[in-house]
Design goal:
single chain, alpha/beta, 4-stranded parallel beta sheet, 12% strand, binds uridine-5'-diphosphate
Length: 433
Amino acid sequence: MASESRHQLHVFFFPFMAHGHLIPTMDMAKLFAARGVKATLVTTPRNVPSFSKTRGINIDIQTIKFPAVEAGLPEGCENIDSIENSIEMFDNFLKATKMLQQPLEQLLQDFQPSCLVADVFFPWATDIAAKFGEIKLTRMQLPNFIKHEVETDLSKFLKEAVESVLKSYGVVVNSFYELEPAYAEHYKKVIGRKTWHIGPVSLCNKNDEDRARRGKEPSIDEHECLRWLGTKKPNSVVYICFGSIANFSDSQLMEIAMGLEASEQQFIWVVKKGKNEKEEEDWLPKGFEKRMEGKGLILRGWAPQVLLLDHEAVGGFVTHCGWNSTLEGVTAGVPMVTWPLSAEQFYNEKLVTQVLKVGVDVGVRRWIRVKGDSIKRDAIEKAVKRIMVGEETDGMRSRAKVLGEMAKRAVEEGGSSYSDLNALIEELKLHCL
Ligand code: UDP
């Protein structure tokens, strides 16, 4: 299950209502709490007195109503010790415990603990917990070569690419261990590959000049862009860019423009389209650029992305979730609106929205490929507001900031990526020199 904070584990304990279960579960919760884990016991009101307090150990107790009468038991019968050895009453007792599913689910929803330690006498609890931990991808969001549908030259090529990883000596990863420790461990221990996490590699660019000129010459003078951003308050501009390949239809661009205007947020929007001769462009609402003067900047062509993302005025990123852009957004410490189009971008979306919880999805349900116009202005407006000024913004922003700092620490001397790169170089020397 997802943790409410990435820095403190929070474990929910849910013991069966019998002293032989309540007592050891309480002790177990104390053991966890004594090691700095946040522990919460879930029980019914009449079982609360069974839990003894230990000085200096803080355990939270959450109660849920026991539906005794609804299950044919006397009022107040909430513990096995009050069912008087009657088989019928025991059956009713179990019936009552099954009715706890909904309130337990509600508690998990409200508190979002890291995991649930449920009594084996609540066999249904595992399925309930799984609802919160599952990251689901629909078939429509998966690449064809994974769906094993008709084999094409491209799907064959991609399969070979994945298989080649398994045959290689090891894998060099543009990521950092702290960003996705569970996946890094899985790769090493379950898939069994040697890996070196040496990223974010974009952090090797130390000055503005280097950060502005990655890949292509920017289509705008970076100083002009920085001057414009310099007039804005911190975290007041949203940056919108869909990577180096994606190209949207005119109707989708029109929806983006309308959504941005309705969001009332300042923006830099990168559009991979040159300006034509006409005064007004068909894909822009009438008078859009005039209305947006000073508020929004349309950047036609290639943006100095890393430089812009790192500016303190930029406080949000609408991204297609290409891995580089995702990691650059993480490194800049900004909340993201995820708008995946194809490839592995739907996986990256889940990482951002459900694992790291530093973004919200705009609502793409299937591969869009290069062109697409499936996302309406309302969804864009809503998502942009959620990362810039919504109720959840502060939480997302502070989690994003922490990740951004972790990213920078990872590549500094002694950091995890710095050490992995050293280890890789040493290992190569051993084999090659
Ligand atoms: N990029 C950029 N300016 C642009 C568009 C993209 O600097 O206008 C950079 C971006 O910073 C990232 C890379 O191009 O490093 C795009 O890679 P990503 O994996 O995000 O997406 P792809 O282009 O492969 O879909």
